[in-house]
């Protein structure tokens, strides 16, 4: 998302001259017209101003005479890939991002969406599991190295981060680590840097943090992900969410529905007060993707076994800011054979391979 979008906001009683000065001084080539509550009223481009002038409007007329009152917009949280698709389909170079009430919360441009910034934040991938539920496939191959389509799961994960602008990787290994090292090397063939962290004994997702080297960036949050997760989550927006909300840790969550296969009876004593046939319960479940602050990383001693949920519960008890980030994009935890088979079908429609 373009970080200087606040500079292109303008009020409806501003003049066309005011709008033109913003377009000429800012690189975004667009002006967003908003009311006092920051609700979007219209959008103005250089072409709109030129057409207004050709219709005998003067630069001192108000912007309502030239603005597009029905611009293409998108909801906050829309993935970059989807925004690019919309802009290319509509033939536009930018798209305002709105919250549910119509308030402007950002601006995405085609240029910034196609040219991902470089993020120095480290990415830590958990790739040491045994994959026992995928035997016999994992008898001679670590689960992250099983191929989905024509690439190992782990390579698909790494490439998805590289595409989003992340190139500094740490990979935690335990089971058959040589296969992972031999495939990726130092990461230079992918345009990345890969450092390996080996667990002599399984330490859990949280415990692996204690093995990270001391030369991690002191002030940058780290993204963690299980090495068997396929997802199209927008890592850039995830990091922005974590940073903007000053979180100590952010857990990606996925909505999970469970339908009770019976009619549920609610009562008071022996009196029935309601009956619901096969109700659906909705929960948020852990998606195996985290953003953690350096402070939390430093809190894990070397060779200390602990899982991430337990670690983050400890920090919640200290009133630290632990947030959740709902994942509405594609997400698949390849833990069982039916997940593995589903991934083989999905990969060709996801653009991940």
From TrEMBL:
Q: What is this protein called?
A: D-glycero-alpha-D-manno-heptose 1-phosphate guanylyltransferase
Q: Per the record's keyword annotation, is Nucleotidyltransferase included, yes or no?
A: yes
Question: For this protein, what is the EC number?
Answer: 2.7.7.71
Could you tell me which SMART domains the record lists for this protein? CBS (SM00116)
Report the InterPro entries cross-referenced here: CBS_dom, CBS_dom_sf, Mannose-1P_guanyltransferase, NTP_transferase_dom, Nucleotide-diphossugar_trans
Q: SUPFAM superfamilies from the xrefs?
A: CBS-domain pair, Nucleotide-diphospho-sugar transferases
Q: Where is the CBS domain?
A: 1-59, 67-123
Cross-referenced PANTHER family: SUGAR-1-PHOSPHATE GUANYL TRANSFERASE
Question: Which EC class, in a word?
Answer: transferase
Q: What's the domain of life for this entry? A: Bacteria
Q: Which UniProt keywords apply?
A: CBS domain, Nucleotidyltransferase, Transferase
Source organism per entry reads Vibrio quintilis
A GO molecular function term, named singly, is: nucleotidyltransferase activity
């Amino acid at each position: 998302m373009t970080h200087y979008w606040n500079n292109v906001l303008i009020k409806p009683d501003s003049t066309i001259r005011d709008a033109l000065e913003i377009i000429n001084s800012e690189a975004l080539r667009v002006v967003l017209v908003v009311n006092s509550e920051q609700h979007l009223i219209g959008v103005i481009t250089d072409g709109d101003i030129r057409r207004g002038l050709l219709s005998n409007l003067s630069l001192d007329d108000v912007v309502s005479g030239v603005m597009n009152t029905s611009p293409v917009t998108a909801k906050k949280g829309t993935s970059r890939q989807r925004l690019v698709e919309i802009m290319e389909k509509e033939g536009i170079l930018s798209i305002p991002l709105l919250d549910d009430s119509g308030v402007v919360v950002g601006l995405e441009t085609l240029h910034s969406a196609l040219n991902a910034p470089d993020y120095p934040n480290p990415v830590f991938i958990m790739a040491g599991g045994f994959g026992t539920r995928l035997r016999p496939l994992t008898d001679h191959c670590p689960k992250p190295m099983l191929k989905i389509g024509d690439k190992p799961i782990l390579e698909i994960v790494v490439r998805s981060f590289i595409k989003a602008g992340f190139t500094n990787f740490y990979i935690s290994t335990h089971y058959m680590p040589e296969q992972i090292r031999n495939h990726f090397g130092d990461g230079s063939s992918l345009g990345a840097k890969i450092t390996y962290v080996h667990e002599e004994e399984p330490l859990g997702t949280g415990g692996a943090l204690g093995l990270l080297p001391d030369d991690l960036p002191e002030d940058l949050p780290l993204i963690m992900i299980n090495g068997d997760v396929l997802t199209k989550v927008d890592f850039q927006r995830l990091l922005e969410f974590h940073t903007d909300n000053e979180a100590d840790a952010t857990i990606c969550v996925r909505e999970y529905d469970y339908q009770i296969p019976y009619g549920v009876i609610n009562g008071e004593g022996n009196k029935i007060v309601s009956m619901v046939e096969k109700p659906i319960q909705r929960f948020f479940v852990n998606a195996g993707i985290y953003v953690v602050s350096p402070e939390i990383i430093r809190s894990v001693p070397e060779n200390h076994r602990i899982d991430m949920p337990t670690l983050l519960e400890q920090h919640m008890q200290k009133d630290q800011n632990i947030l959740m980030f709902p994942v509405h994009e594609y997400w698949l935890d390849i833990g069982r054979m039916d997940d593995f088979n589903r991934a083989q079908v999905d990969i060709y429609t996801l653009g991940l391979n």
